[in-house]
Amino acid sequence: MRHEPNDFCEKLKQSATPKMAKTIDLIHQICTEQSERGSCDFTIATIGRLSEAVNGPKAQAIRNKTGEKYRALIQSWAEFKKPLKVISSKVKEQNAWVGDIDDARIKWLVMDLIAQNSKLTGQLQLAKELSNINIDLRPSANNNAMESSSHPSLTKSNLLPTEVEALSHSINPDTFEKNGWTPDKQGRVKDSEGNTIFKAGFVDAIEKTLSL
Description:
Blueprint: H1 5-14, H2 18-36, H3 44-53, H4 59-63, H5 68-81, H6 89-95, H7 104-120, H8 124-130, H9 143-147, H10 161-170, H11 173-179, E1 182-183, E2 189-190, E3 196-198, H12 202-211
Antiparallel strand pairs: 1-2, 2-3
Helix pairs in contact: 1-2, 1-5, 2-5, 7-10
């Protein structure tokens, strides 16, 4: 469902503190300017970078639990500016695995990571890096047994190379270090202030998916 950004912005501000409402206005202005430039890039990374440049919240702050309203506003802009086109059933099936994620916050973050990674695949540097990675995405022999199940399992063989790269990137030690994140023994990921970014089991779930 698409939200009209201007109306949605006002709705978000109704339940926000004065300080948060001011930041919501800032994020909304940044997204408005992004739209006026003709850009459809409303990823957290991009909006966070533009926000940081004008002393607004950084991308990491937007991804934190306290940035829920900011993410919702950015997502409304992303949906509003997304071209209306017919999407093939094949593409829908390729991305259907995201719907298996129950936690709405994690689902949005994973979608954002996939969007960022899809954009980077067109760049030469990433192409060079990916050329050195050999991943066998052919279905394993065990998949025949899985197909008989009424609920298809999420395995790496179901994913596109860009999706595999996005998931790997989300738990890469360099990603943790760059964002000031720390994983614990329960697979939970926290930021430098001790706020939970990903709930317990997140790291384990990604690792299991990539190992299948």
